[in-house]
Amino acid sequence: MHISVTTNVMNAESESCSATKARSQRPLQDQFLKRKSSRENLDRFIPNRSAMDFDYAHCMLSGAWRGKENPVASSPSREAYRKLLAESLNMNRTRILAFRNKPPTRMDTISSDWSSVQLSEPVKPRRYIPQTSERTLDAPDILDDFYLNLLDWGTSNVLAIALSNTVYLWNAANGSTAELVTVDDDTGPVTSVKWAPDGRHISVGLNNSEIQLWDHTTNKLLRTLRGCHDSRVGSLDWNSHILSTGGMDCRIINNDVRIRSHIVETYSGHHQEVCGLKWSTSGRQLASGGNDNLLHIWDRSMASVNSRTEWLHRLEDHTAAVKALAWCPFQANLLASGGGGSDRCIKFWNTHTGSCLNSVDTGSQVCALLWNTHERELLSSHGFTQNQLTLWKYPSMVKMAELTGHTSRVLFMTQSPDGCTVASAAGDETLRFWNVFGSPEVAAKAATVKPAPGPFAHLNQIR
């Protein structure tokens, strides 16, 4: 009998230890429950001592009710006497502890509505970024010149590249290649190319200061713009029917290609060659970078035909040539710029105020910049030492990927119309295609988007 009781006690102690151990396996569970106030998220209630009868409680616990656990024989007269005595002494209460107020209802620590919302939101998978180019094409005789712009991808899905004196067109839909134009040595080489918004017309800047306008569907030269510059035209950009040209003569000219006297505005502010030109999405501001380390922001409303146009902002933070320029597609008045070999920085500007928002040292020459049109990301191409493409997360500027393959500085980059593929050309005479921006669902809709009106949409012929 003694052994049996001892065994039961040991079992009870063992069960008690097991229960304690099980509760200790989650010691930090309450760290996730935030107590808002002293009246919320309570897990117990303290009884009111003024409503308690401690003498009665002691009696009930120590002796009077011990018979319930160990009943003994009693006569009916004895039981009747006990009940009568209990009534006279107010001992018919069944509650030992009395509560003056009803305990508050315990509040849920985590709202069921909140939990269902959290569980219903799918986790966005991390995009796979291939580290190698998906296609490589030869680009013989491409000029290894930092100040030129020899590559562009039009809205009709045709890529244009200038190789020495010749402009070639590569159709991304079927992979076919065609020659657009070859100029003679007195005119060439070709120093810049830029598609018009309609994807049909293309402008070609030449070493002899002329600019040619071509219709690639008919392979015809439409007109030649003369008198804009005194030397080579290294940068071009379109704003509807306005073609802006930047030259080695430090000038920027706005040309209205619809009229005979095409020069409508002149911007003067650079002291050396203009190597970067980009119109904002709104068409109100033009960013220009030069070999003088200057970055200018020009406002179209301030432009003048007959007088020297004053810049909106002159930004002097870069310490090397500024060629790489890219306007943000999802935030107005945000411009990214990249500096040359002795600067190596990507800077972000508020073009409304002219303030520099951030500057990141990339460690190498910044040759080109492209924004991802589907995500908050920025792609940069670089020179020595790695000749890589770097994908950055904006605005944290954390590196997401580094794409290598080129063996010479990656001077030129352009983006496909659907915003998924990037083409890069380098001094190693190769043209590489990278699936760096993924394949978002919106890309499928790109083919149904109508191209922008061309610069000659309302004209039957060009004068």
Quick gist of this model?
The protein has 463 residues and is mostly beta strands. Helix content is 13%, strand content 33%. The relative contact order is 0.10.
Task: Note down, in words, how this protein is organized.
With 463 residues, the chain is mainly β. The chain has five helices and 28 strands. The strands form seven sheets. A four-stranded antiparallel beta sheet has the order 1-28-27-26, with no helix packed on it. Strands 2-3-4-5 form a four-stranded antiparallel beta sheet, with no helix packed on it.
Main features:
mainly beta; disordered C terminus
What is the strand and helix layout of this fold?
Elements: H1 2-23, H2 54-64, H3 66-69, H4 76-88, H5 112-120, E1 135-138, E2 151-153, E3 158-163, E4 166-171, E5 177-182, E6 190-195, E7 201-206, E8 211-215, E9 220-225, E10 233-239, E11 242-247, E12 251-256, E13 263-268, E14 274-279, E15 285-290, E16 295-299, E17 313-315, E18 322-327, E19 334-339, E20 345-350, E21 355-361, E22 366-371, E23 377-382, E24 389-393, E25 398-403, E26 412-415, E27 422-425, E28 430-434
Antiparallel strand pairs: 1-28, 2-3, 3-4, 4-5, 6-7, 7-8, 8-9, 10-11, 11-12, 12-13, 14-15, 15-16, 16-17, 18-19, 19-20, 20-21, 22-23, 23-24, 24-25, 26-27, 27-28
